[in-house]
Specification:
With about 450 residues, the chain is α+β, with helices and mostly antiparallel strands. The protein has eleven helices and seven strands. Helices cover about 65% and strands about 10% of the residues. A hairpin with a 2-residue loop joins β2 and β3 (about 385-390).
Length: about 450
């Protein structure tokens, strides 16, 4: 029983950390099911694989399979392939992003394997040929190396990787991903080949064998760190390019706002001449009551719109006045509830947030056949700024990598008819700039689209 538990524990220690790490860099909304449930199932599956492996080792035909290698290697490969298949299905992200994480973890697994097989030569009893894969010395090596290297992997590799993959656009980085994947597969092959060659040469001295394997580990480590650094550097460059593009979008929005104000002023002057002529005609006819009713309607549709005070923040109030005015001109009913004063958010970022959110809402309402409406809620409290924009909407296009759910989803879950993603990515990126988030939901039953944005506005 002790030997059985020893084999199962060794298999589990070698498999489970790698299986868990391929899921860690992705956010909660990228999973098909809740994160905790996936982790629990992954733990139980890894334990089941470990118990099955230990049972196969004990039940094997010693005459036909005297070595554990005939079972351990195929068993580990089968477990990895099954977990990889589950990983590809459970994570709703680009395949290239999932491969990037997988090969990063695969490199870790290879490195640990080489390190254990090198150090076991220096441990009494570790280099002996045994019928079981995990004797006490090798099991201790796997446990000790995992305790030391796993936190390093989580802090210095997977945490930055989780941030980088949110910025990477795979369609623009196919070459980098291809080089990374091919190099990892090449070193997997070279590693096992060299391990087999050096392990089968009895004429090699122990010092020579350890030195060869140390050199191999060093070459692989330097190569992989260099390649991942190149990929990460490229992602940073793309992020800077996206920042420049967002700056241009901001300037374009501000320019369109100025042009729209000028056009609105010309239209108001034309309307005023029409109102003056109409009032003069009513005055000549002595229609006093009709004049009062007409003036009340003019004040309600023009003066009230331009003097409406939605909140104390001048930038937010001006943006709401402008876009509510555009909506009213389209015959869209608007309801605004805003409470915010001075904010630590740059005016250009507020322009992006309200500009994209309101323009998306107005565009969706233009295509809506029924009663068109927009509801805006803005509130600042306890160092947070919350914005919610809801509007009537007939339908949206959903990214095939994401399921249509009643809950809120990230920007990547929705597509635009023009390929722009409804400007939702700009909202998401701007919110993340302030340590916040942006999520979106389409309710097909109520024909409503909702954008919910949260910003951390503490100093």
């Amino acid at each position: 029983m002790v030997t059985y538990l020893q084999q199962a524990l060794g298999f589990f220690i070698q498999l489970y950390p790698c299986a868990l790490m391929i899921f860690l860099p992705f956010r909660e909304e990228a999973y098909r099911f809740r994160r905790r449930m996936i982790y629990l199932c992954l733990t139980l599956a890894s334990a089941a694989f470990a118990c099955a492996y230990a049972a196969l080792v004990f039940l094997r035909d010693m005459e036909k399979y005297p070595s554990h290698i005939a079972i351990s290697n195929p068993g580990m490969m089968a477990a990895m392939l099954l977990i990889l298949a589950a990983y590809v299905w459970l994570v709703r992200e680009s395949l290239l992003k999932k491969l990037l994480v997988f090969f990063c973890v695969l490199f870790y697994a290879i490195f640990v394997f080489i390190l254990v097989n090198t150090l076991r030569l220096c441990v009494p009893g570790g280099g002996d040929v045994v019928s079981y894969a995990y004797n006490p010395e090798i099991l201790s090596l796997y446990a000790g190396i995992t305790v030391v290297l796993l936190p390093v992997m989580l802090i210095f590799v997977l945490r930055p990787l989780g941030m980088y993959i949110r910025e990477i656009e795979p369609k623009n980085m196919k070459r980098e991903f291809f080089i990374l994947i091919v190099s990892t597969l090449l070193f997997v092959t070279v590693t096992f080949y060299c391990d087999e060659i050096t392990g089968s040469r009895d004429s090699l001295k122990l010092e020579t064998l350890v030195l060869l394997r140390c050199v191999l580990m060093l070459v692989i480590l330097v190569d992989q760190i260099t390649l991942y650094w190149l990929v990460f550097r490229e992602s940073v460059r793309q992020k800077r390019d996206n920042e420049r593009q967002r700056t241009l979008e901001i300037q374009q929005l501000q320019y369109e706002k100025i042009v729209g104000d000028m056009e609105n002023t010309r239209r108001m002057r034309h309307d005023l001449r029409h109102h003056y002529n109409t009032l003069n005609d009513m005055l000549n006819r002595g229609q006093t009551e009709e004049m009062k009713a007409y003036l009340a309607g003019v004040i309600d549709t023009t003066v009230k719109r331009d003097t409406e005070l939605y909140c104390k923040n001048l930038t937010v109030n001006g943006l709401l006045q402008y876009y509510v005015g555009l909506a009213i001109d389209e015959g869209i009913r608007c309801r605004v509830r805003a409470e915010c004063g001075e904010l630590t958010v740059e005016s250009s970022d507020l322009t992006v947030l309200f500009g994209n959110a309101m323009e998306n809402a107005i565009n969706a309402c233009r295509k809506y056949p029924g009663t068109r409406w927009i509801d805006v809620q803005v509130g600042a409290m306890q160092g947070s700024l919350a914005i919610e924009v809801s509007n009537s909407c007939k339908g949206v296009r959903v990214n095939r990598h994401y399921q249509t759910e009643d809950g809120f989803s990230p920007a990547a879950a929705f597509l635009s008819d023009h390929g722009g993603g409804y400007g939702l990515r700009s909202l998401e990126n701007t919110a993340q700039k302030y340590g916040g988030s942006a999520s979106f939901r389409f309710n097909a039953e109520k024909e409503t689209f909702t954008a919910r944005i949260w910003l951390n506005i503490q100093e």
